[in-house]
Specification:
This protein has four domains: 4-128, Rossmann fold (3-Layer(aba) Sandwich), CATH 3.40.50; 136-263, 2-Layer Sandwich (Transcription Regulator spoIIAA); 299-382, Transcription Regulator spoIIAA (2-Layer Sandwich), CATH 3.30.750.200; 388-428. Helix content is 33%, strand content 24%. The protein contains 13 helices and 21 strands. Strands 2-1-3-4-5-6 form a six-stranded parallel β-sheet, with helices on both faces. The longest helix is centred in the C-terminal third of the chain and has 24 residues, at 359-382.
Length: 429
């Protein structure tokens, strides 16, 4: 059995901002139980890996981390949680060195599981059917980053053909507005200047369960949340991490345009610029709606930063479809792209779609769009040369440099000055 009062723990996070917020919360929970937090590269009694499973690379990275721990610290306990743990618990349990696998319903019970864990026993799996996961656990990152990621929503009710997230995180569920505001006030009092609102499907905030017919029950809305957070004491900036184009309403866009606290920065998943591929992906919009959202933002906030998620090489995507995506994105007034190469995921509808795009073609398409993204970033940044914008500098050192972001998410790098950490500085670009 583990005596928690004398033990140390180290965490490693794979994947999204949501995972970072949850890892930070798990860390605070264990510290309150008497654990000493260590850096992941340091010797520790317990290593916790919070996993992603969006791509095959994330799965591989998890396995590589476990092997690294085994070489460095073979007597340490290894715990795997997160999306990969929910989707493939038996597969993970068979990795040499893994002691505990925690699914979606059990990750926040980590401390109690550690009390019962002994090194050398067979790997323990604590998981359940994802349909049984119905509780929302608030989480946020503190001390790990200057910008704090606050989880306000979890799960997803969509059924995109390529995606395993509903299988890994369950149905859409949310915190209540009053709880989110209380958490934001607490973060503001602790010195946090910027909060990034995050979730799996953020625009679905407010869903609190299902009625007798199986329909989602919405008690509050994301727009109401945004309004309620305006003016939170101590918080200078809010950002919306990512929001589906069909859920990004004109009232949200117009509110951000007139807001003092919500930054002119949107990240809107597109996934493909081909309507045919969007249909194959089972997305809930077409490119015309996406273009309308971008136009609305540009009309109200010409200076806004707009990021785009794109998947290349998904099943059925032809060269013609990919060319449509290139042309659409080239003409679209957006600021940067996050480009993902499609990888096969078990139990997804995409596995039934033909033809399969060769891996070499997927990689080439990724390269083309990354180059387009670089051009977009340069063009967007050049618009603001000579102007002055506020920058919030982060504490992370990059050698002798430090970095920060303008209100509209232009990254600034400058020689390190400790007095600028977590401070808003007027900066001439």
């Amino acid at each position: 059995m583990l005596e928690t009062s004398t033990k140390s723990v180290a965490f490693h996070t794979l994947g999204c901002k949501l995972n970072f917020s949850e890892t930070s919360t798990l860390s605070r929970m264990l510290e309150s139980e008497g654990f000493e937090k260590k850096d992941f590269e340091q010797p520790a009694d317990v290593y916790v890996i919070n996993t992603c499973s969006v791509t095959e690379n994330a799965d591989k990275e998890c396995r590589q981390l476990v092997r690294r721990i085994q070489r460095r610290s073979p007597e340490s306990l290894v715990v795997i949680t997160g999306c990969y743990a929910q989707l493939k618990p038996k597969e993970i349990a068979e990795i040499p060195g893994v002691d505990l696998v925690l699914g979606a319903a059990e990750k926040f019970n980590l401390a109690s599981h550690l009390r019962e864990l002994t090194k050398g026993d067979a790997a323990k799996i604590s998981s359940c059917d994802i349909e049984a996961v119905d509780r929302f656990h608030a989480s946020w990152s503190v001390n790990d980053r200057t910008r704090t990621f606050l989880k306000v929503q979890d799960g997803c009710d969509y059924s995109c053909s390529f995606c395993t997230i509903p299988l890994a995180r369950g149905k859409s569920r949310s915190d209540r507005i009053q709880n989110v505001v209380a958490n934001a006030v607490e973060l503001g009092a602790s010195g946090v200047k910027e909060i990034v609102l995050t979730g799996v499907n953020l625009g679905d905030f407010g869903i609190s369960g299902m009625d007798v017919t199986g329909q989602a029950v919405r008690k509050e809305t994301f727009f109401e949340l945004v309004q309620a957070l305006e003016g939170t004491p101590g918080i200078e900036r809010f950002r919306i991490s990512s929001i589906e184009p069909n859920l990004l309403t004109n009232e949200i866009i117009d509110w951000v345009a007139g807001s003092k606290n919500f930054m002119p920065h949107f990240h809107i998943p597109l996934q493909s610029g081909s309507d045919r591929v969007l249909a194959l992906m089972r997305r809930r919009y077409r490119r015309a709606l996406y273009a309308e959202r971008v136009d609305r933002i540009r009309q109200t906030m010409p200076h806004a930063c707009i990021g785009v998620d794109v998947i290349v090489g998904s099943p059925g995507e032809t060269e013609t479809d990919f060319r449509e995506t290139i042309d659409f994105l080239t003409e679209l007034d957006v600021s940067y792209l996050h480009v993902f190469t499609y990888s096969e995921r078990a139990h997804t509808h995409a596995l039934n779609i033909k033809p399969v795009v060769p891996v070499s073609a997927r990689q080439e398409r990724n390269k083309i769009l990354r180059q387009l993204s670089y051009q977009k970033i340069q063009e967007f940044s050049r618009r603001f040369e000579g102007t002055t914008r506020t920058v919030l500098f982060e504490k992370t050192e990059k050698g002798e440099m430090m970095e920060g972001y303008t209100d509209n998410y232009i990254r600034i790098s400058t020689p390190y000055r400790a007095e600028w950490i977590n401070q808003l500085i007027n900066w001439k670009l």
